[in-house]
Design brief:
Length: 372
């Protein structure tokens, strides 16, 4: 008899951040992860994670809605189904439930983790095999204070932790943001690259003013300066400036990617499991981008170790990404809920080894941080 999915449990886990993390739409002091434990009839448990930023501040799914929609709608679609045909299970979820990409991503991760454990293969091997074992990882400076950000960057450079830095801007007037970024770039000089993420905060004319000043200051990449749906505006900005544009919220999946490419976009795409409903969806976008010569970047929604490991397994199957990754989520958290944390070393992170994701839960820590 074939193995079937028997039980799906979703847990809200609240972990404090090491410092306030200030973005254009919210300031985070805590991260909430939705952890999925999926039990199969052969006794194997698959782990998944769905995480977003700042409740409903970043996107239409909150941790509470992810849990509620999995428990109420998505889990019942999977219970009793054969465990191992992930494509068929993805189609089933997409047929009966629209959107909810973060929830679907957590479930797909748990399915792949279980299937890997069943076959004795890592998730990256299940996806076709590993092309990179060590992935570069940048750090996001978002304390909200210029001198604290400089100290943080210098420490991470000295530790050989990170040598690329992303600055979260857009919450302040453009002149103030530009002064902040330029001061950090000047302090770091050629030792580090500096990029910015505006998280959609500008309109196009503010973007023209801001990007010109950031380009003059030596900033190397501008992430999502304008609203996600303004694809033609992003194409205009990409054509106007030498500094490349990185589409993030504006490119959720392969369809968005195709739309931007057909519109003449020449920048780069940020991949995120959370945007594309899981590993396969994110890789579909990656393949469209590769066919069009668009550079790639491995993005995060600040997931903990389980979600970060899932992303690493997907990115590891791609050739080296032009803009590296930002898979630093676990480093922003004060503690972890896994037995063995990821190995961050030499300006990057190593792909976890072992079957499935290669991650196991620390049950005591999980119980401690579990939302009661
Ligand atoms: C985003 O929009 O890129 C990534 C790093 C960070 O601090 O926030 C995220 C989301
Ligand atoms: Mg972004």
């Amino acid at each position: 008899m074939s193995t079937v999915i028997q039980h799906i449990e979703t847990l809200l886990v609240d972990l404090p951040t090491i410092r306030p993390h200030k973005l254009s739409m919210t300031t985070m002091a805590c991260q909430t992860m939705v952890i999925v434990r999926m039990r199969h009839s052969d006794g194997i448990e698959g782990l998944g994670e769905g995480t977003t930023i700042g409740g409903l501040a970043y996107g239409p799914e909150s941790p509470e809605s992810i849990k509620c929609n999995i428990d109420t709608y998505l889990a019942p679609l999977l219970i009793g189904q054969p465990s191992s045909n992930v494509h068929q299970l993805r189609s089933r979820l997409n047929r009966y439930a629209r959107g909810n990409m973060i929830a679907k991503s957590a479930l797909e991760t748990a399915l792949l983790d279980a299937q890997g454990k069943r076959l004795g293969l890592s998730v990256a091997e299940l996806l076709g095999g590993v092309r990179q074992e060590h992935l570069s990882v940048l750090w996001t400076l978002a304390s909200g204070d210029t001198s604290k950000d400089i100290d943080e960057a210098l420490l991470r450079l000295e530790q050989r932790r990170h040598c690329d830095f992303k600055l979260k801007i857009g919450a302040n007037p453009v002149d103030q943001d530009v002064r902040h970024v330029a001061a950090i770039k000047e302090a770091l000089g050629d030792r580090a690259s500096v990029r910015v993420d505006v998280n959609q905060a500008w309109d196009e004319s503010t973007a023209v003013q801001g990007i010109q000043a950031l380009q003059d200051a030596g900033i190397e990449l501008i992430e999502q300066p304008i609203h996600a749906r303004e694809h033609t505006g992003l194409v205009r900005l990409a054509n106007r400036f030498n500094v490349p544009m990185l589409a993030d919220e504006g490119v959720q999946d392969a369809r968005d990617g195709l739309d931007l490419i057909c519109g003449g976009f020449s920048g780069a795409f940020a991949l995120k499991l959370a945007k594309s409903g899981g590993l396969h969806g994110a890789l579909e976008l990656a393949h469209v981008a590769q066919a069009a010569g668009i550079g790639l970047y491995g993005g995060t929604l600040l997931e903990g170790t389980i979600g970060t490991a899932a992303s690493l397994h997907a990115w590891a199957t791609l050739p080296k990404m032009a803009w590296g990754t930002e898979m630093f989520g676990p480093l922003l958290l004060k503690d972890d809920i896994v037995v063995e944390p990821l190995n961050y070393t030499e300006f990057g992170v190593k792909l976890p080894q072992g079957a499935g994701l290669g991650i196991s839960l620390d049950e005591d820590k999980l119980a401690y941080y579990l939302r009661k």
